[in-house]
Amino acid sequence: MLAGLTIVELGGFIAGPFCAKLFADLGAQVIKIEAPGDGDPARAYGPFPHGRPHPEKSGLFLFLNGNKTGITLDVEKPEGREVLHEILALADVLVTERPRLLYSGPDEAGETARFQARYPALVSACITPFGVAGPLRDDPGNSLLCNALGAAAWAIGDPEREPLNLPFFQCEYQAGINAASAIMAALLMRRRSGTGQRIDISTADVIASYAASNATLYIYHGLQWRRDGRRAYRSSGCYPYGLFPCKDGYVCLIARTAREWGRFVESIGHPAWADQPRYQDQVAMAREYPEEVDALLGSALAGLTRRELYDLACKYEYPLAPVRNVAEAMEEPQLAHREFFVEVEHPEAGRLRLPGLPYHYSGFAPPSARPAPRLGEHTADFLTNRLGVSSQQLAALREGGIV
Amino acid sequence: MNPPLAGYRVLNLGRVWTGPIVGYTLAALGAEVIKLEHESSPDVTRLLGRPTIAGKRPEGEPQELSMFFHNHNRDCLGITLNLKTERGRELMLALAAKCNVVLENFGSGVMERLGLGYHALAQVRPGIIVAAISGVGQDGPLTGLRGYAPVFSSLSGLESLVGYDNEEAQGMLSFGLSDPNAGAQAVFAVLAAVFHHQETGQGQYIDMSQLEAGMAVLGEAMLEWQFTGQAPGPRGNGHRTHCPHGIFPCREPGCWVAIAVECDAHWNGLRQAMGDPPWAREPALQSAQGRGQDRERIERELDDWCRKFPRDELLRKLGKLDVPAKPVLQVEELDDHPQFSERGLYQEVEHPLMGTERLVALPWKMSGLAHSIRKAAPLMGEDNRYVFMKLLGMGQEEFDKLGEDGVI
Fold it and tell me: Which residue of A has its CA nearest to B159?
């Protein structure tokens, strides 16, 4: 789909690598540049097999970097900077979380302008916590802080306890996805104009935009947008809308219509309470006495397993699903049927089962998946074959710790 | 510079949240996006009842006043067309023939049953890109499964990871990540298909699964399961390698700050901000590993310390010493925070019934594309005349008959 595009990924941890991964998975060549020595910080993050840290076995790194060409390069040294410029001359897109690697110092504006003049057709995307421009541009940030500032945390967790972060770096993934689309838009523009542009994606902005959009469902309807434990706040105005305990875990039950609620009640044996008008008014149940109805549901669901409830929901046609852990989710036959997972053999980490593309194209079959590169795996090959670096030059670069 | 999709036309049958995200994004990129509904089958987010805005209840048909609908359908044209009628389906095909992209998020197989599946559309418009966003995909044993977004994120494992450390899952039902996540990924999938089409002329049917979109961001958790034989559960606000890393209370009730220590320098700053108390000086706590092993105590101490100060004072203290910290904002505070007021989280637009209304802008800053929201969401059928008479070349009489026959 995107074969022919060359993406350079530099100075990243999660958002940048995930953004570049979306291109790699559609066949673009992604050149991942890591610092010699430790490489990408995700290599140190884990999870690791048997909990033993190893730079080639970090689950986060292995997930984010499949299908990429991996080279090492110290871009902070002048010789490394020169090589970087040669690489950028081949690139359509640069993705970075650290724009200051490229332009910094007292004359940042001048450097930025010179950089753009040197690569007029390059699309460069900076993904940072708070943006390249703006009042917080220099503040350190990470997933937790973007999630807090972007108001997501405010709406997650128990109302009596501290707000919660989105799990497993979801903030960064969303920033990466938005950046990838902005890059595609810039590439489409370049087709017409011949010129590239600079993209500034702030993770906090992305999360705030999701929060503010979702909040319109609440704040204009007499509801606050805030956390309410396992329920959407006041069930988002219509009971039930939440996670409910059953015999062996939780199910997610949402019934937005009287018909759905009626079918649910019928499916659990139509208990006597259900005939009272008090338990037919979904708006009142949502806003006035949700705990009372939760308790009734609690005793009705206590004897049923997630599987039994799920079967009932499918039979009676109302929206309910088991809350599955990741291991259970991976066993879903639907995913096997759609050949969702990709399997790769990593020389050090072994056989890995990873998520594949969530979109199937009629006219594109993803090329067979390659595991994430080992640190510097493609350095020699790439420098020799793409940049025409001689073996003596390569040796000198190695000697100097540049690659 | 011309916007990237100037000259493109998109027919958007997408409803609720995911489909409209793709619709308004393509519109922001310059495409003419036509939202298709009908009185007998409106986008259900029109039906949330009369809203209250700044203490007032605006006049007009409630279905024209939904702020959720307005937010997610801005910049689109609106037509009505009854796809349950034969004439309606004929006209939909005639319209598709004039479109580059068709978006839908009906249940699996619905378009096919209406005779409006990919092959029918590709026949009237070779090279067309059709994006079908469904809960679980168009084929497989689960197809037909009914649900709202959290149902699919529960199946994907995503909800099971949200909660306090080592406790049972809380989920994130108010936040609702599943829809914007799938919508954002669908935008990328469609733009990639457009890019490919420009190169090759090849059309594309995109079969997008919301369940799979949820799993596509869980690779780290999947590998944890494969590496340890233990499926991960909630971890609260903790970090795999750093400590302290969490959300702590301030003096004002219900006010919180997030503090993320990510290296020893941050820890030293934090110690200093706290006045370097004896407990924090213990040698064991001077490494990330040592702090990680004593996480509970550090968090308890930090909790006690934070509670002494109002939020702003606490943030000033921490900021002065370069300790990464940010307030937990309520959505109502976003507007006034410099990050979002200066970078333009919201934009205002004029709506015929609401007057000036405030919508959430696309969070992309691009040097070559100043995208501002150009127009409010359409009233039901607002652009029927333009679409049926101008685009499809229908005469007045024929157009009037569509109304009489319940086709539009």
Answer: A323
